[in-house]
Hints:
Mean pLDDT: 91
CATH superfamily of the largest domain: ATP synthase (C/AC39) subunit, domain 3
Helix content: 55-70%
Largest sheet: none
Radius of gyration: 21 Å
Order of helices and strands: HHHHHHHHHHHHHHHHHHH
Amino acid sequence: MVQTSSGPGPYIYVSTRLRVRKAKLLAPEEYQRMLNMSLPEIIRLIGETEYQKEVDELGTSFEGIDLIEEALSWNLAKEYQRVIELAPGALKEFTMAYLRRWDIYNVLTILRGKMQGMKEGKIKEVLIPAGSLDRTTLDRVLKEESCERVADALKSWKMYPTLAAEISEGCSIGSFSKLENDLYKRLYADLLQVGKKGVKGGDQFLKFVQLEIDVKNIKTLFRMRNDGYEEDAREFFISGATFTPDELQQMNQMASRNEVIDSLLAKIKGKSIQVALEELRAEKSDQEVDAELTRTQLERMEQLSKINPFSIHPILVFLEKKKHEVFNLRAIARGKESRLSSETIEKYLVI
């Protein structure tokens, strides 16, 4: 097969295939159209796009918002699995490492669903079996009755030691925010290690991981400042990129937003991120800050993809944009079901 041949052929092949897939993602004007539609109209429109097969297959078992949720989850997981099949050599390893974040998403979704007394079927609708925990494993875990039993059923999971250390406290207080924070810190530590172990293309993967850590830390910093969090926040920041947790904690204690932005700009690289930080000098909500930084991260990834067209970057750009397409469609569908205004829904979209 082409993917397993030597030389640059496999990289050119997968990059070309993913450019084609990326071109099929919904254009910004499609979201604007949906914002002016009713929920049944949105479902019908989605059924005419790349999600048609899933909508048709699930249409006899689900309807309305449930159909959208299940179809989007199925499609996203299948697309991710197709990308893994396409990726050659080291690119496959990087892709699979990137997708392990979905294990965290799925485990936390199950735990929170169990704590809230949600039905098994409703939890399953929003799971994305795209990481190391496949659909069969997640179905088995879903059948457990309590969050403690859920944890016990995941003893073979790579991140089980982190889960085991925090599950009792999370279950007792009804919050898994500390567990979530620790799981992501472990994930990024693992991803940094993958990028640094000397595999061909690892330096490009490392750039992506460090960019994501920077964006995640900056989002956390602004969210804490908006919430007035004045305690030691170092445990919430992730090491391994531009800023240390100590530096970010110092910024969290600064008097003004402008002072924080000046400190970030003094070290941050990447013109697009610098421009985004300048725009954040105006007071904005957490949601507006998140959306602005996410758009900037995607823009920076696109730039890296163009500079390094036959690397991990084209794969990561597609995976990220596909994820945000699904999240945008979910936000629109849920917003319409909740009768939110188009203006309110639009704030949650990453376009």
